[in-house]
Amino acid sequence: MEVRIEHLTKTFIGKKGKVTAVNDMSFVVPDGKLVGLLGPSGCGKSTTLYMIAGLHKPNDGKIWFGDEDVTSIPPENRGIGLVFQNYALYPHFSVKQNITFPLDNVRFPGPLDAHQTRIAEAKSKIRKIEKNIARGRKKQLDVKEEEKTLADMQEELAEAEKAYAAAKVALNELKVKNPEKYQELTKKSLSKAEKDAIALKMAKLVDIEGYLERKPKELSGGQQQRVAIARALAKTPRVLLLDEPLSNLDARLRLQTREEIRRIQKDTGITTIFVTHDQEEAMSISDIIVVMNNGIIQQIDAPQAVYDEPVNMFVAKFLGSPAINIFDGEIKDGQLFLDGELFDINPNYEKVYEGTITREKTVVKNTNFTLEEYYHDLDLHPERKNNITAEELYALENPELVTIQYEEKVVKHDRKVFIGVRPEAFTLDINKEFKGANSKHTHLNNIPVVMNYVQRVGRDVSVIGKIRDQEQTSLKIIIPSENWVDVEGKKIVNFKPKRFYVFEETGERIV
Question: What's the CA gap between 158 and 160, in Å, rounded?
């Protein structure tokens, strides 16, 4: 089931006035995929989930499940399964009873229900039309159009009653000829055996079939969360919604349970939306990540693509553990400088404009050519002078000049920027020697690092340090153990990033 969100907006009225929790949000959850809504607390991700569930009504926008607009449909009729952060299990129920609880309210439409609904709707419309006609006649208005509509609806009612009578006769005949089929068609709810079978099936799916008779208090946090997921899946929902389902678990259980969620989603093929503030969770189980901040979508893409190609500094800083290193940089005359030295050259550094300025120039009338450009163009096309009168030739060679105004973009050559390098993107370069902490001689793209200390943690070596003249900036570098070279005794060691990002002061990414 594809889920489509179109221009969704939600505002709340609080003590400080109107607050926009979700602002003009649009995205698509492909059928059978798991999409993670990722962002800091208060960014609007849970509000978005609750609007999809029907618990919050949007101020604007639409929500589609497939081709069905569900924006105004109540939660119980949307076909969703919802798992909350706190499990919400009934403590006095067994695991089996918790799983089957949603099934107790399942009601199947009877074979005559559609006909009865059609009759009821026709009667309701007829009553409204009759009231309109009565009001119109009282005011001496023309009610011919309403009378025609009334006749059409009376005809619709007669057809509906005829179809209902025929269906009732057919059902009575079926009761005599095939009692089992009749019983199946007229069944209003699931039997206890059917509910128990579903509970067992769901318990096997989430790997808790041995705990069906236990109470929630006898289960671990991870097991309780699996019960909540099994309960959400019991009604075979069209869409599964998970609101930070792992937040209450310890680190080990969190890892295990997120693997289980991914397995369950793959096994069932159910379209799933998963809310989390943990970027590691989102990246590990999502097919697509929607990164949010302040109610606005920042980026939508596959997890690795979001990590490798962040669209702005917020996304770059939010994803990654340890977090990305951010340094102060400067662009001068289209070149990037770090710590006062040339760091990189890229034509993209020129593509920032302060604004526009109005200028004037003298051009040939009805053209954009200056006089010099006009004569040069004329020399390139001498055929223009052929077959024209002397008067026309004079006008051609002595053009009328006019002064025009035009807007010119002003390039902002020099500006402060930020340089971002992920900890694992560094390589160690020991071929460069430094004369001291005040040395200003570096190679292009190289970063001289004053090392504070080195940690050897199994497969990786972690370096904590800083750039020489940026005392306030702590730097973290991760080098695979097999690539590490002992640099003990060196105060400054050169590191070269394999990949780096450059951001404007606004956070917009340049490269």
Answer: 5
Mean pLDDT across the chain, nearest whole number?
87
Q: What angle do CA 219, 221, 224 make, to 5 degrees?
A: 60
Is residue 452 within 8 Å of 465, Cβ to Cβ?
Answer: yes
The residue type found at 330 is E
Tell me the average pLDDT across 200-205.
Answer: 91
Q: Between residues 61 and 393, which one has the greater pLDDT?
A: 61
Rounded to the nearest angstrom, the gap between the alpha carbon of residue 366 and the centroid of all alpha carbons in its chain is: 51
| Radius of gyration of the CA atoms of the chain, in A | 35
- The pLDDT assigned to 470 comes to 66
Between CA 9 and CA 18 the distance in angstroms is 13
Q: Which helix (H) or strand (E) covers residue 405, if one does?
A: strand 401-411
> Residues 419, 502: contact at Cβ < 8 Å?
yes
Least-confidence region, from 11-15, 292-296, 409-413: 409-413
- Specify the 3-state DSSP secondary structure of 464: strand
Under the phi-then-psi rule, with left for phi > 0, alpha for psi from -120 to 50, and beta for the rest, what region is 256?
alpha
**Cα separations (Å) of 494 from 57, 166, 260, 397, 491?**
56, 88, 43, 66, 10
pLDDT at 430 (0 to 100): 66
* Structure-token match 């937040």, residue found: 247
Contacts of 14 (CB under 8 A, 6+ apart): none
Strand, helix or coil for residue 195:
helix
422, 325 contact by CB (below 8 A)? yes
Distance between CA atoms of 309 and 316, rounded to whole angstroms?
A: 8
Flag whether pLDDT at 382 surpasses 90.
no
Q: Are the CB atoms for 481 and 456 separated by under 8 Å?
A: yes
Distance, in Å, from the CA atom of 447 to the CA atom of 462, rounded to the nearest integer, reads: 16
Beta-bridge partner residues of 451: 465
What is d(CA 296, CA 309) in angstroms, rounded to the nearest whole number?
18
58-78 tens-digit pLDDT: 999 999 999 999 999 999 889
Alpha-carbon span 83 to 275, nearest angstrom: 10
Predicted confidence (pLDDT) per residue in 337-369, tens digit: 988 888 888 877 776 666 677 888 898 888 888
Give the CA count within 13 Å in the CB-facing half-sphere of 220.
Answer: 11
Distance CA 43, CA 37 (A): 10
